[in-house]
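Q: I have 156 residues here and want to know how they pack in 3D. Can you give me a structure?
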Amino acid sequence: MQQLPPRRIPTRRTFVAGSLLVTVLPLASAQAAPDTMMAAVKEVTGEAAVRPGRVTLDIPPLVENGNAVPVTVSVESPMTEADHVTAVHVFNEKNPQPHVFNAWLGPRNGKAIVATRIKLADTQKVIAIAETSRGEFWSASADVIVTIAACTEDVN
């Protein structure tokens, strides 16, 4: 009969080193998320400048459950035929899909206000961008702390 080698009990040092490795690996993949979000923004805006202002992003700064986060985006605009908001785009850093939603508007809307609920995978930055009939892009952003994450599936 063959003898099995003696069982090794991990030392405190090997346990801590292994724990750090498990903690650092997810952080490395999360570092690329802001780049992914900015690439999604660039797909919408192209080479146009995105300026801060005129957009108000109303989203709770602390969310207990990321499955249904209320979001309201309002834009200062006369909403006339010559000058109106044509679209509102919302992006986030850490969801599997960084481009959360679009809302298409026209001068007949009267006001440039869009409200919905979104899922947030984790604590992250949310950006709202308004596109105008004059080809301008205006933005606002907010940091949201999420205590129970949503969107945890991996999308390829």
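Q: Anything worth noting?
A: The mean pLDDT is 84. The helical segments are 12-30, 33-45.
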